[in-house]
Amino acid sequence: MGGEAQKLWKDYVEQRSVEVKEELIVYYISLVQKIANKISYQLPDHYSKDDLFSYGIFGLMEAIERFNPDLGIPFQSYASKRIKGSMVDGIRKEDWVPATTRKRAKLVEQAYQKLENDTENNVSDEDVAAELSISSEEFRSWLNNIQYITVMSLDEPVSEDESSFVKDIVTDELSPNPVVSIEEQELKKMLAKAIGDLPEKEKTVVSLFYYNDLSNKEIAKVMELSDSRVSQLHTKAIFRLRGKLARQKKLL
Q: Is there a single domain that holds both residue 103 and residue 195?
């Protein structure tokens, strides 16, 4: 944490004044813009980036109010989860995803979970298409249509008490928490194994997106693939991870 940030946090902890809070918002506002830009690449063109930014500001304000500098956790890592969460909540409330698309996303997720439960190997597009009783070409078309839902798919709970989320466990290595539950430690081990077992290209996309903080568009340049192909890989990786996690939890 830089000198200016340290002084602002010291003043805010001592005073809890609106003025210092506003200075902190201005100081970290670029973080909101960065996350809004990243998420916007996963949404339809008609979706307003300004709306994402507005939702993110609320998340930043909440993060500032709740953050405890004494815990030794980097504020950017702490705030990023809440900023993105606020954006996702805003997207959900608008409910712009057609019912047919939501239904197909659910069917694809169920197919991956069933197939991942039946085998230790990565299932192919053809396997999933057969499970859905559609052609491989139609399955790829479904992936293109449901890719926008993956912006929210990591915000689903994976613990029985609904307190742990996949996205938090994926990014946890960037901001290790000294107080981590045994369940979350197990979930983290399970997710690490699930990511390690992904097909190589899907693993690369997950790594670049969640660990290197690149957008799908930036990943496409790195991997020399089209944006749509990266989106497909990202979508399949998310559904596959959720299927693998369900399988591993069942074996415990």
A: yes
At 102 the pLDDT is 83
Summarize the confidence of residues 174-180 as an average pLDDT: 47
Per the structure, the complete domain to which residue 113 belongs is given by 99-251
- Amino acid 98: pLDDT: 78
128 shares its domain with 244: yes
Predicted pLDDT of residue 249: 61
CA angle 90, 94, 96 (to 5 degrees): 125
- Among 61, 94, 127, identify where a domain stops: 94
| Structural contact between residues 37 and 49, judged by C-beta atoms closer than 8 angstroms | yes
Instruction: Output the pLDDT for position 167.
Output: 54
- Residue 130 confidence (pLDDT) above 60: yes
Q: What is the 3-state secondary structure (H, E, C) of the chain?
A: CCHHHHHHHHHHHHHCCHHHHHHHHHHHHHHHHHHHHHHHCCCCCCCCHHHHHHHHHHHHHHHHHHCCHHHCCCHHHHHHHHHHHHHHHHHHHHCCCCHHHHHHHHHHHHHHHHHHHHCCCCCCHHHHHHHHCCCHHHHHHHHHHHHHHHHHHCCCECCCCCCCEHHHHHHHHHCCCCCCCHHHHHHHHHHHHHHHCCCHHHHHHHHHHHHCCCCHHHHHHHHCCCHHHHHHHHHHHHHHHHHHHHHHHHHC
